[in-house]
Amino acid sequence: MRRKLIAGNWKMNKTLPEAVELAGELKKQVGNVNDVDVVLCPPFPMLFSVGEIIKDSNIKLGAQNLFWEEQGAFTGEVAAPMLTSVGCQFVIVGHSERRKYFGETNQTVNRRIKAALKFGLTPILCVGETLEQREAGSMETVVTTQVKEGLADFSADEVAKMVIAYEPVWAIGTGRNATPEQAVEVHSLIRELLKSQYGADLANKFRIQYGGSVTPQNANELLQEEEIDGALVGGASLKADSFAAIIKAGELLSHA
Ligand code: 13P
Q1: For the purposes of burial, counting CB atoms within 10 Å of the CB of 225, is it exposed (0-12), middle (13-18) or buried (19 or more)?
Q2: CA-CA 20 to 30 A from 18: which of 49, 154, 227, 231?
Q3: Atom number of ligand 1 nearest to Cα 211
Q4: Where are the alpha helices (DSSP H) in the chain?
Q5: What's the predicted TM-score (pTM) here?
Q6: pLDDT at position 1, please?
Q7: 20-40 tens-digit pLDDT
């Protein structure tokens, strides 16, 4: 069984004192988790402080985005070596909110992934269709294109270092999660695509997370699916108790 990866995407939430409090509480509750990987993705200004709090625990640090250039005159942007220098090991790339509000395309996503890999960061590539696209019957085309173009020109060795998060846009922040069946259908589609492009060995080891209204209430039914290798959690990762409950659901399942 693949090791589950539970990541908390804090999005644009938490001031420094709030971030410090949440990270401290999570460290207390789940700092010594062993059977699942746990990643916190706070906003950029909080990365260092959160990293200091969790550095002697089993919780890892991730960022929510990065720019593809390494340094230079790019006002407001953040580069991969900056992220690694504050302790990041993961970085979310191509989240639907970045695609929707900040004009991210599969091509810019591809460049960001390249920069992440160059500096040893594990990219979490987010893909997922809107409700409109699902209702128009184009989920499969949309997700396939996002994966293919996002991963364009990467070798199998490079792809093996990544994670994909399937996040249907209609499930994000709506309280309406994809059913396990809906998630499994898309995860299988992505895994088949990886298999055809990079081989069965890579596809079998590759982790595909689900994201979109994951809560302590639905975590178990989603994570118990073998096809679902973890969760990318937004709202429910902003409170220690609910995020810890999701992590514990993942841990219990790894013993099942
Ligand atoms: P919610 O868990 O708030 O639906 O957000 C999911 C998400 O976008 C994680 O990246």
Answers
A1: middle
A2: 231
A3: 6
A4: 16-30, 47-54, 80-85, 96-101, 106-118, 131-135, 139-150, 156-159, 180-198, 200-205, 216-223, 240-255
A5: 0.98
A6: 79
A7: 999 999 999 999 999 999 999
Q: How far is it, in rounded angstroms, from Cα 223 to Cα 220?
A: 5
Q: What stretch of H or E contains 125?
A: strand 122-127
φ, ψ of residue 87 in degrees (nearest 5): 100, 10
Q: Where are the domains of the chain?
A: 5-254
List, chain by chain if needed, residues with CB within 6 Å of any ligand 1 atom: 9, 95, 167, 172-173, 211-214, 232-236
- Strands (E) across 32-77 are located at 37-41, 59-63
C-alpha distance from residue 168 to each of 127, 203, 208, 217 (Å) = 7, 21, 13, 19
Return d(Cα 158, Cα 166) in angstroms, integer: 19
Structure tokens at 159: 């792809």
CA-to-CA dists, residue 216 to 82, 222, 237, 240, 250, angstroms: 33, 10, 10, 11, 10
Assess contact for 166 and 128: CB atoms under 8 A.
yes
